[in-house]
Amino acid sequence: MHVSQNKTGGTAVIAVHGVGTPVPGSMVRDIAALLQSSNPGVYGDFCECSYEISVTPLSEIDIAQKTDGDSPRSDGEAPKKSKAHPWYVRSRYVSLKVNESISPGPIDAPRRLRESAEGEEAPPPRDPEMDDVLFTREATAKARLDYESSIYRSIRIGGARTSNGTANRVDLFEMYWGDLSRLPGWIGRILGEFYQILFHLASVGQKTVELAWLKSKSERSRLESVLKAQTLTESMLAGVLPVLVLALLFAILPVFGQLASDSILVHATIIALIFAGGIAALLSYLLWQDGSLDSLPDAALRRRGIGIFIAYSSTLPAGFSASLLWIGMLGKPSGVVLFVTLSFVSLAAFYWCARQLANRRSEGGAVSTDVATFIGAAIWLSLLALGTSSRPFGAPATSTQIAMTIGEGMFVLIACAWTVFIFAAWATCLLGFIASFLSNSWRTKAAIWTGKIGIFVPASLFFVVSLLGWQLLTGFVKNVPNVRYQSIFPSWSAALLDGVDCRGTAETVHECIDRLLTISAGPGFNAFIAMSLGALALLVVALLPSIIFEIFPAVGDSPRLSERMGLWLDTGFILSRIAGYISLIGFLGVLPILQLSRLLQWGAWLRDIQGDSTLRIVAAVIISSAGFLVALRGVAFKGTTKAIGIALDIDNWLKEVPIERNPRGRISLRYLALLRHVCAMGYDRVVIVSHSQGTVITADLLRYLEIFPVPGITSPIRLMTFGSPIRQIYGLRFPHLYHWARSDRIHPRVPDVHELARVDHWVNGYRSGDYIGRFFWTGRGQWAPWNWRRLSREIPPHGSGQPSTPPRLSVDTAEFCVGAGAHTHYFDGTASNVGREIDRQIA
Length: 843
Known about the structure:
- The protein is globular and about 95 Å long.
- The two termini are 21 Å apart.
- α6 runs parallel beside α12.
- It is of the alpha/beta class.
- The N terminus is likely disordered.
- Helices cover 54% and strands 9% of the residues.
C-alpha cells in the first residue's frame, strides 16, 4: 500500500502537565504511547529530539494591544493618579486597583464573544473589569528572567498519523512549568512547601476576602469589618507569630556552643573564626555588589576568590587576639563570653530570616513583620543584658541560665501573641458569619469561607508543629547541664503562668522547661487532637474511593461503578465541609476555652487532663514510624501528596510577591515562547492537551491573549482539559478572580470557549471520583462514561445506546466522563477513550 507523505502543515500537540513536578518529558511520552495503543495502525513509531528556545520578557515583545481609538497605557507606564489605600488592604493587585494604578482601560468584552442565539439561554453577566486578565498582565509584565529561566530546553516527539493512505505530520511538544513553580533542590523544596502550607496560604485567603470587598460595592460596609478582622488575624499568624518563634529558636541555640569544650582556647578559637567569617562576608559583599556571578569571567572569579581566602586567613590571628581581649574585657567565664558572641551572630541570622519573611509578604517588607522583628530583638537583647548582670543564683550566671532567662521571656511574648490571634480569629468568624447570613451573593459567601480556610488550617498545623518541634528539642536539653534557675518574673507570675513557679532552690532548668511545655499543650490539647482526628477520619471517608483508585486505577469503565463513585464524592464534599467546622470549633473554641478555664481554676478536674503526655505520645509515634512512612511514602501518601501538591500549585499561581519572580508571570512567558515557536513552524492546527493545574495555566493565558494579543500566535487551537480545577476549586474558592469559570448554577456557556484566544473547540474530560476537577457544563447524567463497552472508532449499531463521540453541548464545546477513577491516570492504559478523543482532535 502506497502512503504519501504530507511534509507541510500537520498538527502540533502541546502537553501541559498537572499537579506537582513530574519528570520532564513524562507526559508527552505518555500521550505518544497512549495514541499508539488506543489507535492501532494509525500511528507509527515516534522519534524524539531535543530543542531549546529563548524566553523573551514581555517588555521586548511588540504587544498588539486592543484599542478603541485611544492609546492604552502600557504595562510599564507609571500610574496617572494614586491615592493611599486602607491599611487592611495587603495584596499587591487589590492595592493597585484601589490606587487606580491598574485598570482595564479601553478593554471591551472578548472580541469573539457572540450574542445568544434565538431561543438560547443568555449567559450570566460578565465582569467588565476582568480582574483575572489584569492580574495576569501585571504578573507577566513585571516578571524578570534569570539565566536559567530565559532558555527553555525540552523534547519534541515527532511522528505521523496515517489515514486513507496519507501520512500527516504530528509533533508532540511539552509545556513543562513545574521547575518554575517550586524551589530547586529537595531541601529548598521541603522548606518552601513547609513555609507555604503554614504561612503563605493565609495570604491567599486574605486576598480572596479583599477582592470580595473590592467587587461587592453594595456590601462593602459589612465586608470592611470582616476584612479588618481578617487582616489582623492574618498579620498575627503569618507575620508576628513566626517571627517570635524564630526569635525564641535563635535565642536559645547559642547555649549549645558551650558544650564544645570548657577550654578558654577553644572558645577563643571559635570567636576568632566568627570574627574572620564576618570580615570575609563583608569583603565578599563589597567585591560582588557590582555584578552577579553569572556575568563575571572565570579569571575574575578566581582572583576574587583567592583574595577572599587570603583576607580570611590573615584575619584569623587578629581575630584570635581580639577574642582573648573580648573575653578579658567582658570579665565573665569563657562559656558566657562565647554564648554572648554567638548570640550576636544568632541575632544577625534572625534579622536576615525576618527580613526575608517580610519581603515575601509584601514589597519593601510587611509592617507587622517588621514590628514583630523589632520587638523580638529588643526583648531578646534586654533579657540577654539582664541574664549577664548580677543575679541571685549564688554564683555568676551560666550560659544555660542566661538562655533560660531569654527563653522564659520570649515564651510569655509568644503566649501574648497567640492570645491576640485568638481574639482576632473570634472576631473574624463572628463578623464573617453575620456578613454571610445577610448576603445574597454566593460569591461573597464563598470568599468569606475561603478566608476562614486560609486562616485556620495553617494556624492549626502551625500550633501542632510548633509543639511537636519544641517537644523534640527538649530532648537535646538533657545534654545541657541541669542547674537551678530562678524566674525573672515576680511572685504573681505563678498565677499568670498556670501555677508554674520556677523560683526557689527546688526548681531546675529541666523542670522549668517541662512545665512551660505543659502550659503550651494545656488541658484543651487532648480534646483538640481528638476533634482533629475525627475531622481527619471524616475526610478520609469522604475521599476513600478516590484514594483507592489513585493507588490502584481501574481498567475499564463500569457505568454503575462510575455513578456510585461520583455520588460518593458529592457526599464526600459535604463531609469535608463538616470536617472543616469540627476542626474550626476544636481549634478556636475548645482549645482556648479549656485553657482559659484551667488558668482561672474553674475546674479542678482540668489538672488531670493536661496534654503534655499526649504530645509526647504523638512525638514518639512520629519518630518511631518515620522510617516506615518514608519507605512506603509512594503507596501510603500518594493521594495525600497529590492533594497537597495542588494546594501548593494554587498558592504559587496566585502568588504576587516578589513580583519579579512570581511563578505566574515566568510560567506565562515560557508558555508564550513555546506557542510562538510552534506557530512559526507552520502547523495547520495546535491541539493543547492539559491536565489539572495545567488547564488553569492554559485558560488564564488564553484569556489574557484574547484581550492582549501577542504577535506570532496565529494557528487555530483546540483545547482539551482533563481533571481541571477551573470550576470545582478556582471558581468556587476564588469567585471574584475566576468569575468566568463558575456561576450559581451550571450553564452551557460558563466557562465560555469564546473568551479564549484562537480556540475554536474545547473538550473537557473527567473521572467521576476526581476530587480536583470534574464537569463544567453537564447538568445531569454526569457520571455516565462515554463509550464504556466498545473502545472502537466505529459508529455503533442503531439502538445500542453507545455514543461513539462525547456528547456535544454546542458547536464549540464537548464534555465526557472517562469513567470511575481519581485525579491521575488520564494518560495511561486505563483511559483508552482519552487517547481516542485526542486522536479525533488531531484528525
